[in-house]
Amino acid sequence: MTDDADANSIATTDSPFSKLPDHLLIEIFVRVPHSEWAQISSVSKLWADLFRQESLWRTALFGTFPSASRTKRWPGPIPRGLSKRRFAALCISKHILTSDGEMDEIMGHAYLFLKEQLQLSTMAPSSGILHGTIIGNQFIACGKSRDAAHDLASQIWLAVLDNLEENHNTFLLLKRFAQEGDKGISNPRLSVRLSSDTILNDRLSEELKLVFLPYPYSRSIKVQWRVFEKLFTDFRDCFNGVDYYDVLACAKTKFQPIPSAWLGY
Asked: How far, in Å, CA of 61 to CA of 83, rounded?
């Protein structure tokens, strides 16, 4: 939009620009590239307040994604949220998942849900619980076939895994997923009934971890492969000897032959 000096002069109380009513400022801001919104919101307290208002995000949402104004049935348990959340979900769907269709917003929300759950801590719910929730409640509940739901969920998992921060918590998370296998939900009907209130229930989680996760509620081979691939490439330096050989043994039970790049601690 402008450099910092120009932005500050525009926002001063003596500037005609600062006297514009909020609704005109919003119309101007939503026409500026999204990459500059953080800079704009830091120019003044007034502008920062505007970027916290539902009216700005609703204008941005409906202006950028006109189809978002249509009322649609929303399956649970992943919440739809307000306009800012919906805007983020649709941007993710368009730019990260490259989705452009009837499932675009749902896929974006599923991506946000999964990434946030994985980054809460190293004690996030098991991958089976998370995968079953995305598959059962979001995609099969939308009328998708088992195969289509499985493919959509796999796209989301791969995108999230590729966009996790490279830190020690992510290493511990991926290592746990590599070692846990496909334990999770034994009954497909049960996964469809899972809600945001029950996902984090410790007792339920422990019960569900003990049983095999059947198709389509199991993570795809591509997702399992990506977990090991990231561990043995991006996080190789995080291993100690014992951990490395434990995870390598898990990889050998799933994939034969394994890539030579994964070998050698």
From this structure: 6
Going by C-alpha positions, the residue among 72, 132, 128, 129 that lies closest to residue 104 is: 72
pLDDT digits over 89-147, tens only?
999 999 898 876 677 888 999 999 889 888 876 566 677 777 777 776 678 878 888 88
Of 23, 47, 22, 24, nearest to 37 by C-alpha is 47
Question: By CB neighbour count within 10 A (0-12 exposed, 13-18 middle, 19+ buried), where does 91 fall?
Answer: middle
- The position carrying tokens 């979900």 is 89
**How many Å apart are CA 265 and CA 260, to the nearest integer?**
12
Beta bridge partners of 183: 212
- The answer to whether the peptide bond before residue 21 is cis (omega within 30 degrees of 0) is no
- The mean pLDDT value of the chain amounts to 79
The secondary structure element, H or E, covering residue 232 is helix 221-233
